[in-house]
């Protein structure tokens, strides 16, 4: 279902200012985190409490979530930096 929604441009943020990615991090839902990142969601977007998904994962003590989110962020930053020099 998530894949179908993402493919059709569904808004991944709720009305309260929370993001699907931070909600997935709160639930320690690895598969949803991976799918949202693959869909290109903004991993640095802050939720209603001002936290990124990585910060939520950290506050929940979800080390695997912190690792995947920070690794993805580093990868995206490297790609952006490389594009500047092409």
TrEMBL record:
InterPro entries found in the cross-reference section: Ankyrin_rpt, Ankyrin_rpt-contain_sf
PROSITE patterns found in the cross-reference section: ANK_REP_REGION (PS50297), ANK_REPEAT (PS50088)
Alphabetical keyword list: ANK repeat, Repeat
Cited Pfam families: Ank_2
Residue windows of the ANK repeats: 1-17, 16-48
Keyword Repeat (UniProt): yes
Keyword Ligase: no
Name listed for the protein in its UniProt record: Uncharacterized protein
Organism: Phytophthora rubi
């Amino acid at each position: 279902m998530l894949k179908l929604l993402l493919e059709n441009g569904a808004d991944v943020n709720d009305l309260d200012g929370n993001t699907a990615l931070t909600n997935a991090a709160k639930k320690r839902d690895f598969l949803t985190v991976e799918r949202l990142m693959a869909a290109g969601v903004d991993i640095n977007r802050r939720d209603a409490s001002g936290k990124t998904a990585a910060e939520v994962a950290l506050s929940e003590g979800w080390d695997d979530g912190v690792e995947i989110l920070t690794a993805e962020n580093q990868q995206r930053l490297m790609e952006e930096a490389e594009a500047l020099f092409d």
